[in-house]
Amino acid sequence: MLRLKRKMNVMLFCALIFAGSIAISQTQEPTQQQISVPDAELQLFAKAYQGIQVAQQDAQRKMIAVLEEQEIEIDVFNEIQQAKLQNQEIEAAQSDVQKHAKAVEKIEKMQPEIQSKMEKIITDTNLAVEKYEQIAGALQSNPDLVKRLQKLMAG
User: Given this model, what pLDDT does residue 35 score?
Assistant: First the structure.
């Protein structure tokens, strides 16, 4: 149970960090129109997506190492980060707020490298970043496309 709680905290931590920072597909406007995605392009997207998932896990490990270096618990970091993102009053010790600020500074310095690595993963699959973003946007509003992707990834 403790392991599950830690995993959930790590996932929340990563979601909060990635919110508005390195999520490639969030740099575009939501897709209102349905786009046609041939199976070959969807296959390339699936390969890139899987590579990005691995890169995100690596980035998560590095971010957790930053928190450990700053001696701030993931739960505390998450609470402060969430309060900041929602423009709410921060209910934490001043020392934790300072640790949070130092951790965010170090994590933000990592962002360009992470972003570049993810873009390279996409382009290495012979898919343009813009096309990846377009497909990612379409997946948010097209359940049939999601099913096709899931089928491709299931093998």
Answer: 84
Which residue blocks in 19-142 are alpha helix, DSSP H? 39-70, 74-85, 94-124, 129-139
- How far CA 91 is from CA of 45, 79, 81, 95, 139, in Å, comes to 42, 8, 11, 12, 37
Task: Give the tens place of pLDDT for each residue, 57-102.
Answer: 999 999 999 999 999 999 999 999 999 989 999 999 999 999 999 9
Q: How many CA atoms lie within 13 A of 65 on its CB side?
A: 7
Q: Is the model more confident about 29 or about 66?
A: 66
Determine the residue type at 61.
R
Buried-state track 49-68, b at ≥16 Cβ within 10 A, e below 16:
bebbeebbeebbeebbebbe
Reduced to 3 states (helix: H, G, I; strand: E, B; else coil), residue 1 is coil
Q: How far apart are the first and last CA of the chain?
A: 32
